From TrEMBL, chain A:
The keyword Translocase applies. It comes from Marinitenerispora sediminis. It comes from the Bacteria. CDD domains: ABC_PstB_phosphate_transporter. This is Phosphate ABC transporter ATP-binding protein. Coiled coil: none annotated.
From TrEMBL, chain B:
This is Phosphate transport system permease protein. InterPro entries: MetI-like, MetI-like_sf, Phosphate_PstC, Phosphate_Transport_Permease. Belongs to the binding-protein-dependent transport system permease family. CysTW subfamily. It is a multi-pass membrane protein. NCBIfam families: phosphate_pstC. The gene is pstC. The keyword Cell inner membrane does not apply.
Length: 259, 320
């Protein structure tokens, strides 16, 4: 179920602007990988190229290779839609479909693959996904209420339930807690620790403690300078990155000294 | 000393109402009241003026189709055929125009290359501004002639449906032609409204669908259409309002007769607005008052249609 991602020599452009330069990394299955780095260094941009979501942005394009286990996701015959079913995404702001009930939100992605899902199977999938997102007990009595009526933290867990209902191999999360209070943040962090049993997880975060708490591996990105592209500076065991990183740049960023 | 001092100075000053706020609030309230007053005034006028003929009417106003109102006593008239024709023409227009408008709007917003989309958007806005007489001229001068063969085909293959029963009118001046011309007339306004709401669908919703592995069409079904629903209904109602009240195009195209007929390919039927326009110059006796009674019915139909639309939009409000 969970798969390895192998990136080699990836450049990302917005039109002529090179936003991310020459990233190579391996993301192991059944682990949590955190991306950290200053604002604008291309973490979101890079993350979105891992499931070809960047193609939604006009002008965005990549050079290089991304392998999901032994499949090249940028091979000409590969459909980006199929890639996204395999590699799910959770966004910074919770974005449940406002016109749908909690139940329909959870089932929305799964219905795409299987239009005629019998009611019993759908019920079962909704319950399993909501339990998987630690949300079931809070919403089981109001599954037909609108998803937008939940609190921010609940909405974000609803979005996670919706993403895992499609049964992807990889889950990408772009600052999933930045719009949430500390309690909801902890709930999501607990959830991430559980989810890594079954999924490859990549999370972008500005919160160092969060990266230290949830991730096994940390990747540090930085800008070479204003107007220059972002680069992967260093990647390694989270413990090591936070205690004795190889690069001076990483240490400065971790300890809060920039420059 | 200091304590008394601070207790007086620390008081938060009473809020002053600024002049701009007062003017704006009263202006807004005034406009609201004015609208209601005009609406009530129009209704009162229509009721007052139609009372004469309605009380003298010897036929049932709602179930009669004939129109013998231009007399000094014992008028006999009713709006059955007129109301039926009005609703039928508007319904055809709406049924034809709405899906096409949604298609065009989706194309402009989500499929067309940017340059083409800009041109199309401009053309749509332009079409919406063309006066209805021009559409009427186009309908009678060109469209009527083109539809003949198409109507014959409809009758040959779908003639067993009462709507398309023969014999096909040889002039082409039928209810279906009227409906189609009205559809073309209201197409731009519905397209413009739906295009606007489609453009407002938040990127977050669209990306949510795409990230689940939705194709572009699935994304539209999942995120765009549900979000745009109130806007689509609003646009359709605006179009319906125009179609219900449209006078010139109908009066120019249709060869009228006061019957209740479902046969769209035969000549016949008439709408309230066109009937008023055609009859008014020759109205004598109870005629004018009777026409105003017909106008009252049109007024009521429009109100009901709008209320139903509002109800439909509001029913699922908590989901949007
Ligand atoms: N749609 C876009 N079009 C053009 N340039 C973009 C676009 N999105 C991002 N960029 C540019 O790409 C660079 C990387 O942006 P990105 O959003 O990936 O940074 P980030 O590391 O995620 O920052 P943050 O931590 O603030 O979210 C920035 O210079 C940004 O201006
Ligand atoms: Mg970002």
């Amino acid at each position: 179920m969970s798969k390895r991602i192998d990136v080699s020599g990836l450049h990302v452009y917005y039109g002529d602007f090179l936003a991310v330069e020459d990233v190579s990394m391996t993301i192991e299955p059944r682990s949590v990988t955190a991306f950290i780095g200053s604002s604008g260094c291309g973490k979101s941009t890079f993350l979105r190229t891992l499931n070809r979501m960047h193609e939604v942005t006009p002008g965005a394009r990549v050079q290089g290779k991304v392998m999901l286990d032994d499949q090249d996701i940028y091979a000409p015959e590969v459909d980006p839609v199929a890639v996204r079913r395999e590699i799910g995404m959770v966004f910074q702001r919770p974005n449940p479909f406002p016109t749908m009930s909690i139940y329909d939100n959870v089932i929305a992605g799964a219905r795409l693959n299987n239009q005629r899902m019998p009611k019993a199977r759908a019920d079962e999938l909704v319950e399993r996904s909501l339990r998987g997102a630690n949300l079931w007990d809070e919403v089981k009595d109001r599954l037909n209420r609108p998803g937008a009526g939940l609190s921010g933290g609940q909405q974000q867990r609803l979005c996670i339930a919706r993403a895992i209902a499609v049964e992807p191999a990889v889950l990408l999360m772009d600052e999933p807690c930045s719009a949430l209070d500390p309690i909801s943040t902890l709930a999501i962090e607990d959830l991430i620790s559980q989810l890594k049993e079954n999924y490859t997880i990549v999370i972008v975060t500005h919160n160092m403690q969060q990266a230290a708490r949830v991730s096994d591996v940390t990747a540090f990105f930085n800008l070479a300078g204003t107007g220059k592209p972002g680069k992967l500076i260093e990647m390694g065991e989270t413990n090591k990155i936070f205690t004795k990183p190889d690069k001076k740049e990483t240490e400065n960023y971790i300890t809060g000294r920039f420059g | 000393m200091t304590t008394t001092d601070s207790s007086t100075t620390a008081r938060i000053p009473r809020g002053k109402r600024r002049l701009g706020d007062v003017v704006f609030a009263n202006g807004a309230r005034g406009s609201g009241v004015l609208i209601l007053a005009i609406l009530a005034g129009v209704a009162a006028f229509l009721i007052g003026q139609s009372y004469d003929s309605l009380s003298a009417n010897t036929a049932n106003f709602f179930t009669t189709s004939e129109w013998a109102a231009n007399v000094r006593e014992e008028p006999a008239f009713g709006v059955a055929a007129l109301a039926f024709g009005t609703i039928l023409a508007a319904a055809i227009a709406l049924l034809v125009a709405t899906p096409v408008a949604i298609g065009i709007a989706l194309f402009i917003v989500y499929y067309a290359p940017r340059r083409l989309a800009a041109v199309l958007g401009y053309v749509v806005d332009l079409l919406a501004a063309i006066p209805s007489v021009v559409y009427g001229l186009w309908g009678i001068g060109w469209l009527v002639g083109q539809l003949g063969p198409f109507y014959l085909l409809l009758e040959r293959y779908l003639g067993w449906i009462p709507l398309f029963a023969g014999p096909v009118s040889t002039t082409g001046r039928t209810m279906l032609t009227v409906g189609l011309v009205l559809a073309v007339m209201i197409l731009p306004i519905i397209t413009a409204m739906t295009r606007d709401v489609f453009q407002q669908v938040p990127q977050a919703h669209r990306e949510a669908a795409l990230a689940l592995g939705a194709t572009r069409w699935e994304m539209i079904r999942m995120a765009v259409l549900p979000f745009g629903r109130p806007g689509i209904i609003g646009g359709a109602m605006l179009g319906l309002g125009r179609a219900l009240g449209e006078t010139m195009a109908v009066a120019m195209i249709l060869s009228p007769s006061l019957v209740v007929s479902w046969a769209l390919l035969q000549s016949g039927n008439q709408t309230i607005a066109a009937h008023i326009a055609l009859q008014y110059p020759e109205a004598t006796g109870y005629g004018v008052s009777a026409l105003i009674a017909a106008g009252l019915v049109l007024f009521a139909i429009t109100l009901v249609v709008n209320m139903v639309a509002r109800f439909v939009v509001a029913r699922r409000k908590e989901f949007s």
